[in-house]
Fold this protein.
Amino acid sequence: MIPQPGQSKVEEPPKTTRPRLPATADSLLAIAVLLAIWKLGALYVDREIILPAPERVFQVFWGLLQSARFLTALAATAARGLLAFTIALTLGSLTGFLAGLSPRLQRWLQPSLQVIKATPVLAIVLLAMIWFPSTLVPVFSAVIMSYPIVATEISAGVRSVDRRLVEMAKLFRVAWLHTTLHIRIPAAAPHILAAARNALGLSWKVVVAGEVLSQPLHALGTGMQNARIMLETSEVFAWAAAGILLCALSDGIFDLLALAFRRKKVTG
Protein backbone atom coordinates (compact mmCIF):
# COMPACT_ATOMS: atom_id res chain seq x y z
CA MET A 1 0.00 0.00 0.00
CA ILE A 2 1.39 3.43 -1.02
CA PRO A 3 0.88 6.11 1.68
CA GLN A 4 -0.69 9.42 0.67
CA PRO A 5 1.10 12.72 1.32
CA GLY A 6 0.96 13.57 5.01
CA GLN A 7 0.18 10.02 5.99
CA SER A 8 2.61 7.79 7.82
CA LYS A 9 4.10 4.85 5.99
CA VAL A 10 2.08 1.71 6.38
CA GLU A 11 4.21 -1.21 7.49
CA GLU A 12 3.92 -4.39 5.50
CA PRO A 13 2.86 -7.44 7.48
CA PRO A 14 5.75 -9.79 8.15
CA LYS A 15 6.07 -12.63 5.73
CA THR A 16 5.47 -16.03 7.19
CA THR A 17 7.83 -18.83 6.40
CA ARG A 18 7.18 -22.50 6.68
CA PRO A 19 9.11 -24.12 9.50
CA ARG A 20 11.88 -26.36 8.29
CA LEU A 21 12.65 -29.75 9.73
CA PRO A 22 16.04 -30.03 11.43
CA ALA A 23 18.79 -31.86 9.58
CA THR A 24 18.55 -34.87 11.91
CA ALA A 25 14.83 -35.25 11.20
CA ASP A 26 15.48 -35.05 7.45
CA SER A 27 18.15 -37.74 7.74
CA LEU A 28 15.89 -40.03 9.76
CA LEU A 29 13.10 -39.53 7.25
CA ALA A 30 15.43 -40.42 4.37
CA ILE A 31 16.55 -43.58 6.19
CA ALA A 32 12.95 -44.55 6.83
CA VAL A 33 12.12 -44.12 3.13
CA LEU A 34 15.10 -46.27 2.10
CA LEU A 35 14.11 -48.98 4.58
CA ALA A 36 10.54 -48.91 3.27
CA ILE A 37 11.75 -49.29 -0.33
CA TRP A 38 14.04 -52.12 0.76
CA LYS A 39 11.16 -53.88 2.57
CA LEU A 40 8.85 -53.55 -0.42
CA GLY A 41 11.57 -54.92 -2.69
CA ALA A 42 12.11 -57.90 -0.39
CA LEU A 43 8.36 -58.60 -0.33
CA TYR A 44 8.18 -58.39 -4.11
CA VAL A 45 11.16 -60.70 -4.70
CA ASP A 46 10.08 -63.04 -1.87
CA ARG A 47 13.41 -64.90 -1.92
CA GLU A 48 15.78 -64.31 0.97
CA ILE A 49 18.76 -65.58 -1.00
CA ILE A 50 18.22 -62.72 -3.48
CA LEU A 51 17.09 -59.87 -1.22
CA PRO A 52 16.53 -60.47 2.50
CA ALA A 53 14.19 -58.22 4.45
CA PRO A 54 15.75 -55.47 6.58
CA GLU A 55 14.54 -57.03 9.85
CA ARG A 56 16.22 -60.31 8.90
CA VAL A 57 19.50 -58.51 8.22
CA PHE A 58 19.21 -56.68 11.55
CA GLN A 59 18.61 -59.98 13.30
CA VAL A 60 21.73 -61.52 11.72
CA PHE A 61 23.74 -58.38 12.44
CA TRP A 62 22.70 -58.46 16.09
CA GLY A 63 23.80 -62.07 16.30
CA LEU A 64 27.17 -61.24 14.77
CA LEU A 65 27.70 -58.45 17.28
CA GLN A 66 27.63 -61.04 20.04
CA SER A 67 30.32 -63.20 18.45
CA ALA A 68 34.03 -62.81 19.15
CA ARG A 69 34.80 -63.62 15.51
CA PHE A 70 32.88 -60.59 14.28
CA LEU A 71 34.32 -58.19 16.86
CA THR A 72 37.85 -59.35 16.07
CA ALA A 73 37.24 -58.85 12.35
CA LEU A 74 35.73 -55.42 12.96
CA ALA A 75 38.71 -54.35 15.06
CA ALA A 76 41.18 -55.64 12.45
CA THR A 77 39.42 -53.81 9.61
CA ALA A 78 39.21 -50.61 11.67
CA ALA A 79 42.93 -50.83 12.44
CA ARG A 80 43.80 -51.31 8.74
CA GLY A 81 41.58 -48.41 7.70
CA LEU A 82 43.02 -46.05 10.30
CA LEU A 83 46.58 -47.08 9.46
CA ALA A 84 46.02 -46.50 5.74
CA PHE A 85 44.33 -43.18 6.47
CA THR A 86 47.20 -42.02 8.69
CA ILE A 87 49.84 -42.90 6.10
CA ALA A 88 47.89 -41.31 3.24
CA LEU A 89 47.16 -38.17 5.26
CA THR A 90 50.80 -37.78 6.30
CA LEU A 91 52.30 -38.32 2.85
CA GLY A 92 49.55 -36.38 1.09
CA SER A 93 49.80 -33.42 3.46
CA LEU A 94 53.57 -33.24 3.07
CA THR A 95 53.69 -33.41 -0.72
CA GLY A 96 50.51 -31.36 -1.11
CA PHE A 97 51.87 -28.57 1.08
CA LEU A 98 55.15 -28.47 -0.84
CA ALA A 99 53.29 -28.56 -4.17
CA GLY A 100 51.13 -25.68 -3.01
CA LEU A 101 54.27 -23.63 -2.40
CA SER A 102 56.03 -24.69 -5.60
CA PRO A 103 54.16 -24.52 -8.94
CA ARG A 104 56.99 -26.51 -10.53
CA LEU A 105 56.58 -29.37 -8.07
CA GLN A 106 52.83 -29.18 -8.66
CA ARG A 107 53.40 -29.72 -12.39
CA TRP A 108 55.68 -32.68 -11.68
CA LEU A 109 53.19 -34.35 -9.34
CA GLN A 110 50.08 -33.77 -11.44
CA PRO A 111 50.63 -36.58 -14.02
CA SER A 112 51.29 -39.16 -11.29
CA LEU A 113 48.22 -38.13 -9.33
CA GLN A 114 46.06 -38.31 -12.45
CA VAL A 115 47.34 -41.81 -13.27
CA ILE A 116 46.58 -43.05 -9.76
CA LYS A 117 43.10 -41.51 -9.82
CA ALA A 118 42.36 -43.19 -13.17
CA THR A 119 43.63 -46.61 -12.07
CA PRO A 120 40.83 -49.04 -11.06
CA VAL A 121 40.84 -50.12 -7.42
CA LEU A 122 40.73 -53.76 -8.50
CA ALA A 123 44.01 -53.37 -10.44
CA ILE A 124 45.74 -51.89 -7.39
CA VAL A 125 44.47 -54.71 -5.16
CA LEU A 126 45.55 -57.43 -7.59
CA LEU A 127 49.05 -55.97 -7.86
CA ALA A 128 49.26 -55.63 -4.09
CA MET A 129 48.34 -59.31 -3.74
CA ILE A 130 51.50 -60.12 -5.72
CA TRP A 131 53.74 -57.81 -3.70
CA PHE A 132 52.48 -58.06 -0.10
CA PRO A 133 51.01 -60.53 2.40
CA SER A 134 47.24 -60.61 2.73
CA THR A 135 47.18 -58.41 5.85
CA LEU A 136 48.98 -55.55 4.09
CA VAL A 137 47.14 -55.70 0.75
CA PRO A 138 44.12 -53.63 1.96
CA VAL A 139 46.38 -51.07 3.68
CA PHE A 140 48.60 -50.54 0.63
CA SER A 141 45.61 -50.30 -1.71
CA ALA A 142 43.83 -47.76 0.49
CA VAL A 143 46.98 -45.62 0.82
CA ILE A 144 47.50 -45.55 -2.95
CA MET A 145 43.88 -44.59 -3.67
CA SER A 146 43.56 -42.01 -0.86
CA TYR A 147 46.89 -40.26 -1.31
CA PRO A 148 45.95 -38.26 -4.47
CA ILE A 149 42.82 -36.93 -2.77
CA VAL A 150 44.81 -35.57 0.16
CA ALA A 151 47.68 -34.19 -1.91
CA THR A 152 45.39 -32.41 -4.38
CA GLU A 153 43.15 -30.90 -1.71
CA ILE A 154 46.02 -29.74 0.52
CA SER A 155 47.81 -28.20 -2.45
CA ALA A 156 44.66 -26.27 -3.36
CA GLY A 157 44.29 -25.13 0.25
CA VAL A 158 47.84 -23.78 0.41
CA ARG A 159 47.36 -21.91 -2.87
CA SER A 160 44.13 -20.37 -1.58
CA VAL A 161 45.93 -18.29 1.06
CA ASP A 162 45.62 -14.53 0.72
CA ARG A 163 48.83 -13.50 -1.05
CA ARG A 164 48.68 -10.05 0.53
CA LEU A 165 49.05 -11.57 3.98
CA VAL A 166 52.06 -13.57 2.86
CA GLU A 167 53.66 -10.52 1.24
CA MET A 168 53.03 -8.49 4.38
CA ALA A 169 54.67 -11.20 6.48
CA LYS A 170 57.71 -11.09 4.19
CA LEU A 171 57.78 -7.29 4.40
CA PHE A 172 57.91 -7.43 8.19
CA ARG A 173 60.42 -10.30 8.05
CA VAL A 174 58.17 -12.75 9.86
CA ALA A 175 59.79 -16.16 10.26
CA TRP A 176 58.77 -18.79 7.68
CA LEU A 177 57.59 -21.18 10.39
CA HIS A 178 55.44 -18.49 12.00
CA THR A 179 53.93 -17.61 8.62
CA THR A 180 53.17 -21.26 7.96
CA LEU A 181 51.56 -21.89 11.36
CA HIS A 182 49.53 -18.68 11.56
CA ILE A 183 48.72 -17.84 7.93
CA ARG A 184 49.04 -20.78 5.56
CA ILE A 185 47.68 -23.60 7.72
CA PRO A 186 44.63 -21.65 9.01
CA ALA A 187 43.80 -20.64 5.43
CA ALA A 188 44.07 -24.27 4.30
CA ALA A 189 42.15 -25.67 7.30
CA PRO A 190 38.83 -26.21 5.42
CA HIS A 191 40.70 -28.03 2.65
CA ILE A 192 42.60 -30.14 5.19
CA LEU A 193 39.34 -31.15 6.86
CA ALA A 194 37.73 -32.01 3.53
CA ALA A 195 40.79 -34.01 2.47
CA ALA A 196 40.83 -35.98 5.71
CA ARG A 197 37.12 -36.72 5.51
CA ASN A 198 37.22 -37.91 1.91
CA ALA A 199 40.39 -39.92 2.44
CA LEU A 200 39.02 -41.75 5.47
CA GLY A 201 35.72 -42.52 3.77
CA LEU A 202 37.55 -43.91 0.74
CA SER A 203 39.96 -45.86 2.96
CA TRP A 204 37.11 -47.82 4.56
CA LYS A 205 35.75 -48.83 1.16
CA VAL A 206 39.09 -49.78 -0.37
CA VAL A 207 40.19 -51.68 2.73
CA VAL A 208 37.04 -53.81 2.74
CA ALA A 209 37.33 -54.39 -1.02
CA GLY A 210 40.96 -55.43 -0.58
CA GLU A 211 39.98 -57.80 2.23
CA VAL A 212 37.35 -59.47 0.06
CA LEU A 213 40.04 -60.40 -2.47
CA SER A 214 43.10 -60.99 -0.26
CA GLN A 215 41.22 -62.84 2.51
CA PRO A 216 43.14 -61.95 5.70
CA LEU A 217 42.36 -64.16 8.67
CA HIS A 218 40.43 -61.46 10.53
CA ALA A 219 38.56 -58.94 8.34
CA LEU A 220 35.07 -57.73 7.46
CA GLY A 221 35.80 -58.45 3.80
CA THR A 222 36.73 -62.04 4.63
CA GLY A 223 33.45 -62.47 6.49
CA MET A 224 31.54 -61.09 3.51
CA GLN A 225 33.33 -63.44 1.12
CA ASN A 226 32.76 -66.50 3.31
CA ALA A 227 29.07 -65.64 3.66
CA ARG A 228 28.81 -65.23 -0.12
CA ILE A 229 30.33 -68.65 -0.70
CA MET A 230 27.77 -70.19 1.67
CA LEU A 231 24.98 -68.21 -0.06
CA GLU A 232 24.09 -66.49 3.22
CA THR A 233 22.85 -63.26 1.68
CA SER A 234 21.57 -61.90 4.99
CA GLU A 235 25.01 -62.35 6.50
CA VAL A 236 26.64 -60.63 3.53
CA PHE A 237 24.36 -57.65 4.18
CA ALA A 238 25.20 -57.77 7.89
CA TRP A 239 28.96 -57.75 7.30
CA ALA A 240 28.54 -54.92 4.80
CA ALA A 241 26.47 -52.99 7.35
CA ALA A 242 29.47 -52.99 9.68
CA GLY A 243 31.55 -51.26 7.00
CA ILE A 244 28.76 -48.76 6.41
CA LEU A 245 28.66 -47.99 10.13
CA LEU A 246 32.41 -47.30 10.12
CA CYS A 247 31.90 -44.78 7.31
CA ALA A 248 28.92 -43.21 9.08
CA LEU A 249 30.87 -42.93 12.34
CA SER A 250 33.82 -41.21 10.67
CA ASP A 251 31.48 -38.84 8.80
CA GLY A 252 29.78 -37.96 12.09
CA ILE A 253 33.12 -37.18 13.71
CA PHE A 254 34.13 -34.92 10.83
CA ASP A 255 30.74 -33.18 10.96
CA LEU A 256 31.42 -32.34 14.60
CA LEU A 257 34.91 -31.11 13.75
CA ALA A 258 33.55 -28.94 10.93
CA LEU A 259 30.91 -27.49 13.26
CA ALA A 260 33.53 -26.72 15.91
CA PHE A 261 35.75 -25.09 13.29
CA ARG A 262 32.91 -22.86 12.03
CA ARG A 263 32.00 -21.82 15.57
CA LYS A 264 35.61 -21.00 16.37
CA LYS A 265 35.90 -19.00 13.16
CA VAL A 266 32.76 -16.99 13.98
CA THR A 267 33.70 -16.33 17.61
CA GLY A 268 37.34 -15.75 16.79
Summary: Residues 68 and 196 are 31 Å apart (CA to CA).
